[in-house]
Q: What sequence folds into this?
């Protein structure tokens, strides 16, 4: 059976499963729609959190980034897992005891202020839309490459599926489909990794294979072989980092605090029955996440070795099918600088500017010609980092069913995250804006209707982002983490651990953190992109890591303002005392 | 709760202190394995080996994550014990 038929089969079967689960778990009340009735088993919640958290970026892009950046990729590995320690120790149990529906709920109630609630709602909506745009794009890419459907048709099919289970099922439907999606995505990630690990090192566990010797009786460790290959070709050694220590430090910290402050992750801990379940559930979530995250660097190193071995020195006319297919999608480009018909893969970017634009004509060897200038380096090959996970099974010549499985896994990762984000947006609108701000007298039925309408509208907007992607999607992802780190993490943490914290301090802190972080990113990404380098950054901190600086500013401003203004009312201090203790008082 | 008898208040204060101590200890480990071993001292640790891994590289791409998982389970286990010791656990 061809890989394409297999892919149709796998993707079709997984979609049927998601729809079946959605019908079985419809929501009838706002409590079910927002927090799945608060009765989710902690292990199931862990799996759902993992699927919710691991997006198209984790599944498709992360190993690709590590494959090309090597040691510097650690900021994502540590940043996107270390945040769970903060979440488990500092936020999740207390928010579970607070027992409401949303993050703006906590901010609004703890700081007895509608202004604080509104600032929080705006942040939630902005962060979630930023994120969801990327997911829809991921869905489109998988569809177009593997099912040879138009990208737009792919986005619309994806929207239809999410619409079905998010609007019908709410949090309850999403939770149980996410459990299924976790199983699909982790299986799809591990199977090819295990295959390649056995081929390259003889060790079936990729996490151990990465530290093993090559399976070719040379006795050389795999990482040493890779360091040797990369330096030989004039590239940076795989295990050596290029980023400055201070930038790595700040980016990792921003990703950690951002992870702990992302509303669609926090809200998952409102769905378990007890405080102790929230604690252990964060642990299960991280186990499920760690399975993928400890495999990713192995996939990255294996893929880099396989690409170098299979592509460098290849005569273009003999290139395997996957090469031409990705070239057709514009994600691989080859410019034959020395006209020898052989692909030279070396250090440095092949083209200027780095991303290829095709002239529509074919060269002598049959390659797609680019209009880019040739760069000074000997490198002739452009490979988009996002294709590594999808292309690797083909590069390594794995069986067709494994290739089909990866496509289904990529879709599961993108759809599960999109659904979680859309639910957070719809809840922010129906609960925080309508019920708690503009229309306090609506009945539960009406609120539920608003929630479903908001979810439907949000899916439509997300789909538009997927079909007409704003050119700045990659740039704005730095926003989501930076803003979450500079706003939600400090404001929630201080609300729990600092009883004296009052509304003036919270609002001043949030606004300082947000404007500073927002301004810094906008300045370097949009106003003066030419200055976006270490010489111009404050203290050498890139826009990716500035959320940490914003968070520190937020803390400083909060503490100063708090000293100068009256303490919060007695009932708020009692609320803090109450959430600090698990049992009833 | 402001009406709560003094001994409940004292108990809650002692419970909170035990909680903070545990949290700070675990966060110290969290900081050491990621920010110290994985970032600040990564080059220095790379002179040592763990099988095929340079040690700093191992911490930053594998080891830190294993520690994170262990920290959360230790926290959940110790906190449940502290809850029981102070009699503030939830009803079954």
A:
């Amino acid at each position: 059976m061809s890989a394409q038929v297999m892919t149709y089969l796998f993707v079709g079967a997984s979609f049927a499963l998601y729809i079946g689960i959605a019908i079985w778990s419809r929501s009838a009340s706002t409590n079910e729609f927002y927090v799945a009735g608060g009765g989710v088993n902690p292990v199931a919640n862990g799996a759902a959190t993992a699927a919710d958290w691991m997006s198209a970026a984790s599944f498709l892009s992360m190993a690709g980034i590590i494959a090309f950046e090597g040691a510097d990729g650690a900021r994502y590995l540590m940043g996107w897992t270390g945040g769970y320690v903060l979440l488990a120790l500092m936020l999740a149990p207390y928010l579970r005891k607070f027992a409401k529906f949303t993050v703006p709920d906590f901010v609004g109630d703890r700081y007895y202020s509608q202004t604080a609630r509104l600032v929080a709602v705006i942040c939630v909506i902005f962060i979630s839309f930023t994120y969801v745009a990327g997911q829809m794009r991921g869905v489109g890419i998988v569809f177009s490459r593997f099912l040879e459907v138009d990208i737009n048709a792919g986005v619309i099919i994806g929207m239809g599926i999410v619409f079905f289970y998010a609007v019908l099922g709410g949090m309850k439907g999403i939770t149980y489909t996410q459990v299924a999606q976790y199983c699909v995505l982790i299986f799809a990630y591990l199977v090819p990794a295990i295959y390649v690990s056995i081929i390259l090192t003889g060790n079936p566990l990729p996490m151990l294979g990465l530290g093993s010797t090559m399976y070719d009786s040379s006795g050389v460790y795999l990482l040493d072989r890779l360091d040797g290959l990369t330096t030989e070709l004039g590239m940076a050694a795989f295990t050596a980092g290029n980023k400055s220590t201070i930038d790595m430090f700040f980016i990792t910290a921003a990703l950690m605090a951002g992870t702990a402050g992302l509303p669609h992750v926090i809200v998952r801990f409102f769905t378990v029955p007890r405080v102790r379940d929230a604690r252990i559930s964060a642990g299960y979530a991280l186990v499920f996440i760690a399975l993928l995250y400890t495999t990713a660097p192995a996939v990255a190193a294996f893929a880099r070795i396989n690409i170098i071995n299979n592509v460098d020195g290849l005569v273009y006319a003999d290139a395997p099918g996957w090469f031409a297919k990705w070239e057709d999608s514009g994600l691989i480009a080859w410019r034959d600088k020395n006209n020898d018909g052989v692909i030279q893969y070396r250090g440095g970017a092949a083209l200027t500017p780095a991303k290829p634009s095709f002239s529509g004509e074919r060269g002598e060897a049959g390659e797609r010609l680019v209009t880019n200038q040739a760069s000074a380096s000997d490198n002739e090959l452009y490979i988009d980092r996002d294709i590594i996970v999808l292309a690797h099974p083909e590069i390594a010549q794995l069986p067709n069913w494994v290739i089909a499985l990866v496509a289904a896994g990529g879709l599961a990762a993108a759809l599960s995250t999109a659904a979680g984000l859309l639910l957070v947006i719809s809840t922010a609108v129906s609960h925080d804006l309508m019920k708690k701000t503009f229309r306090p007298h609506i009945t539960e039925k009406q609120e539920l209707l608003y929630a479903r309408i908001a979810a439907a509208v949000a899916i439509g907007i997300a789909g538009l982002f997927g079909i007409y992607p704003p050119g700045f999607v990659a740039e704005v992802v730095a926003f989501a983490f930076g803003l979450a780190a500079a706003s939600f993490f400090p404001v929630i943490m201080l609300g729990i651990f600092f009883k004296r914290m009052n509304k003036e301090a919270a609002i001043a802190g949030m606004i300082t953190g947000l404007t500073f972080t927002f301004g810094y990113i906008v300045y370097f990404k949009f106003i003066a992109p030419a200055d976006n380098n270490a010489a111009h950054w404050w203290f050498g901190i890139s826009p990716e890591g500035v959320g940490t600086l914003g968070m520190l500013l937020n803390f400083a401003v909060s503490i100063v303002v708090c000293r100068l203004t009256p303490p919060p009312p007695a009932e708020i201090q009692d609320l803090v005392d109450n959430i600090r203790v698990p049992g009833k008082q | 709760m402001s009406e709560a008898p003094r001994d409940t208040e004292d108990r809650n204060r002692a419970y909170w202190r035990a909680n903070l101590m545990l949290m700070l200890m675990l966060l110290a480990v969290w900081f050491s394995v990621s920010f110290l071993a994985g970032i600040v001292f990564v080059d220095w640790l790379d002179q040592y080996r763990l099988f095929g891994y340079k040690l700093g590289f191992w911490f930053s791409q594998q080891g830190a994550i294993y520690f994170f998982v262990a920290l959360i389970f230790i926290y959940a286990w110790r906190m449940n014990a502290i809850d029981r010791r102070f009699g503030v656990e939830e009803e079954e």
About this structure: Strands of chain A lie at 332-334, 351-352, 358-362, 368-370, 373-374, 381-383. The first strand of chain A starts at residue 332 and ends at 334.
